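Project channel, design review

CF: Before we commit to the Flavobacterium faecale constructs, I'd like one complete example in the thread so the newer folks can see what an input/output pair looks like. Taking ABC transporter permease.
RD: sounds good, go ahead.
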Amino acid sequence: MRLYFRLLKESFAFAVHALTNNKLRTLLSLLGVTIGIFSIIAVLAAVDSLDRKITSDLSSLDKNTIYLMRFSFGPSEIPKWKREQFPGVKYDEYVYLKNTLTNTQVVAYQMFVGKELIKHDDKTATDVNVVPVSSEFIDIQGLAFDKGRFYNESESNSGKAVIVLGYEIAISLFESQNPIGKNVRLYGQRFTVIGVLQKKGEGLFGDSNDTSVYLPVNFIRRMYGDNNDAMTPVIILKPAKGVDMDAYKAELTGKLRSFRGMKDGQIDNFFINVFSGFTNLIDGIISQMNVMGWIISGFSLLVGGFGIANIMFVSVKERTNLIGIQKSLGAKNHFILFQFLFESIILSVIGGVIGLLFVFIMSIVATKLADFEFVLSYGNVFLGTFLAAIIGLIAGIIPAISASRLDPVEAIRTGM
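CF: and here is what came back for ABC transporter permease:
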């Protein structure tokens, strides 16, 4: 065993000596592997960071949450012209389902509306995401508060002029003041601030709670009615835990069809969008991004591997005379093999480490500039190093075998 460790040590020393004696050639050989490892690990780290951000943003929602509306989250077999004729869900349908649907924890009603500006005295916040929603929304979304509270059922049903501000909106309008109990103007109307949400950070899908405001949906209904084309209503349902989702969707479909007076044979003029379907769609996209990243980066690694193999063949040719002398003095074939194999692996691993270093620097810069946490995980570091070693092993195996099989006499004569 000690003999083998000595053999490995001497082979390693020979490899390091050969690399340091040919610095320019070593540097050029590193470039291919460095670029390849950088490409793969940068893509994997970006996808991992994206996945973490999505998981964080969606963690407050139950995967069984249902969005009942006239639009579908994904592709549909129903023609577009027919889908465009579907009616929006109504507030009366929300009340009906809330009172009659079984195995349900929460039912809420929301309207998707355009962005607005909101004012307080001489200060204005623009591009504000307005969320008109019923009081049950807090039990679905799980909002956390920095100050104050969410509006209650009575305030929601009466459409009281109260409002909950996102953290950034509150800072923009009130700076260091306490906003609770103060007034802001929205839609030309005066609202009383009753709550401020905790800071959450930039949202992955555009709007964040920090730049949103929440107000009773009935206030908007009173102002604009239920048939405004600029607003998209949705009923949000959170089924009871452990419920059979197929049976639950069948009950929901039956009740809504009955309420709308639909006849047998008519297709459903609404979509039951289960949130898990959306997350599965996102997971599929992330998987495809990973595959594409591997394919694109694989070409860089292939080029890097060929570069190392070429350099190793050159190295064998240059040191043919030395190989012949070593073998004539008793060096075994496996000693020569390990010598060149280690040189190839070390060269590749150094290139991989440099590539990982570039990814690490990029992650720090991207996190600071984009307000997005770009994470280089230990798993990706290990994967990058492992890939680099494998590339070095594969690229160096043929040159190393050819060197180990040289005849000592012929090698000395050829090298002279």
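RD: helpful, thanks. The chain is about 55% helix and 15% strand.
CF: The mean pLDDT is 80.
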